[in-house]
C-alpha cells in the first residue's frame, strides 16, 4: 500500500508539473505576441457635438474599487468566472455628470440604468444631486428602461422624462433586513458554539445562536429601516411631484390597483405617475435621433458612453498639477481586519499606513477619512484610530466622513476625529463587541474521532477538537466586557459625553445618522464634499487641491494591469463572458439565497482579530 501511494503521489506531481509548465509556456508565448503587436495609439476620444451622454455604468456603486489581481481577472473572464465584482466609483459618476453639465458637446443625458446592481441610499442621493445640478444647466435628462429596481428608480426619478417598456415593470417594495439563521443547522452538525457579547442589541452573533431575529433586534432594525424608507419616499415624491402615499400601498391596496389594470405592471406604473410614457427601445431611439441627430453611421443617435466619456476626462491632457496645500482623502471601505489588506478591505496596518503617509506629507494640511464599513476587528480599528490621533497631534485637522455605513468598528475609527459628518441615511452606531468560537468536538466524536493528551497548564487546554472549559469561557466573556467598557469610555471621552449617556444609546444598537446626531454621536449632516470643505476650513485653507491617498501598485502589478486592460489582449485571449457558468447557475437557482449564505459565511471567515474580539454590524445590510 505504501508503494502504491508513493506511485500515485509521484504520478500526480509529474502531471501537476507538466500542467504548470504548459500553461506558463502558453501564457508567456501569448504575452510576447501581444506586447510585440500592440500598436501605438494617441488615445484620443472623440465626443460628437450635440451628443447624448449615456449613463450606462455597470455594477455596484462603491467608494473604492476592490483590488483584483489583473491576471486573475483576465483568466476569470477567459474561464467564464463571475467571481470578480463589477463596481463603479461614485466619484467617477459625479465627475462625469458635473463635467457634462459644462460641456457644450453634450446635449442631454440618457439614464440607462439596467446594469446598475444596487447601492445604498446615500450613494444614490449623491448622484441624484449631481443630476439635479445638471438640469440647472438647461439640459434635459431622459430615463429609459425595461425594468427599474428601487435603486435604479431613485436615480430615474430625477429625469425630466421617465419611459418604460410597455411590457416592463418597476419594483418598489420598501427596504428589508432578513439574515439567515443557523442554530439548528449547527446543532445537527454537532458544532459547539461559544458566544461572548455585550449589548442588548448586539445582534451580530444571533444567526449562530437563534433560528429567528430577537425582539430587541427587530425593534432596533425596524426603527432605522423605517427612517431610510421615509427618506426614500420623500425624495421620490419631491422629484415626481406627488404624495408619498402614491407608492406606499399595503398588499390589499396594491392588489386592488393591479386589478384595475388587469395585472399590467407597465400600465400600473403609468397610471400612478411613476413613469411618463411607455415606449419600446426602438421608439426611444427614433425619438433621440430626431432630437440629437443621427450618429456617424446613421444607425443610432449621436451618443457617447459613460466609460468613454470618463476616459476622455482622465486623459493626460485633462490632468493638472497639484498646488502646495492639499486636503487628503483616505477611503476606508469594507470589513476591518488585522494586518495589511488590499483595496476593498480595511487592513489595520495598511489603512494606518495611508493615514501616516498623509501625516508625513508636508503639503497635506487636513485629512478626510471616508468610512464605508460595518466594522470588524477591534484591534485593527484601534491601530487605525491611533494614527488618527497622531495626525491631530501633528496639527492637522481630521474629519470623519461617513458613507453608507460607519457602524461598530466603523464608528470606532471615526470617533476621535475633530468632526464627524454623515449623510442622513448613513447607518451608524452599533457600539458593542462580541467574540465567537466554534468548536467541533461533538462532530468529531460522532465520527469516532477523539482528541486527548497532556499540557503543562490548564490554559493550554483549548482546542477546536476538544472545546473550551467553563472557566476559560468566563475569561473570554470578561475580555469582551472589558472591550465594551473601553469602547463606550472612549466614545464618551472623544465625544464629550457622559459614559452613562453613551451606554444608553450603545448596547450594539443601530441608528441612522439623523438619529445619531440627536444623541451627539454625529456632528453634522452632509456629503463627502461637505466634509472636505469643513476640513479645509479647519485648516484655514483658501486655495487647495483635493488628493486621494491610496495604495500604490507594485511595478509588476501596474504592468500587468495595463497589459490586461488593453483591447488587444481581450481580442487575443478573452472571449465574451458566458452566462452559462455552472456554479453561477446553481447559486442563482436558489433565488439569491445562495449568494446570501456565501456572503454571511464570508463575513465570518474574514475575522482575524488576534484576541478574537470584534465590533462588527452584520445586520447593517439592507435589501434594496
From TrEMBL:
* Catalytic residues in the record: 202, 408
- Organism listed in the record: Pseudoalteromonas phenolica
**Annotated ranges, domain Peptidase S49:** 134-292, 391-541
Instruction: Please identify the protein, giving its name as recorded.
Output: Signal peptide peptidase SppA
Entries under PANTHER family matching the protein: PEPTIDASE S49 DOMAIN-CONTAINING PROTEIN, PROTEASE 4
Q: Name one GO biological process term.
A: signal peptide processing
Residues passing through the membrane, by range: 21-38
Provide the alphabetized UniProt keywords: Hydrolase, Membrane, Protease, Serine protease, Transmembrane, Transmembrane helix
Which family is this protein grouped under? Belongs to the peptidase S49 family.
Signal peptide residues are none
Q: Name one Pfam family in it.
A: Peptidase_S49
Q: Which Gene3D superfamilies match?
A: 2-enoyl-CoA Hydratase, Chain A, domain 1
Q: Where in the cell is it found?
A: Membrane
Q: Which GO terms describe its molecular function?
A: serine-type peptidase activity
Classification of source organism: Bacteria, Pseudomonadati, Pseudomonadota, Gammaproteobacteria, Alteromonadales
Coiled-coil residues: none
Domain of life from the UniProt record: Bacteria
Which Gene Ontology cellular-component terms appear in the entry?
Answer: membrane
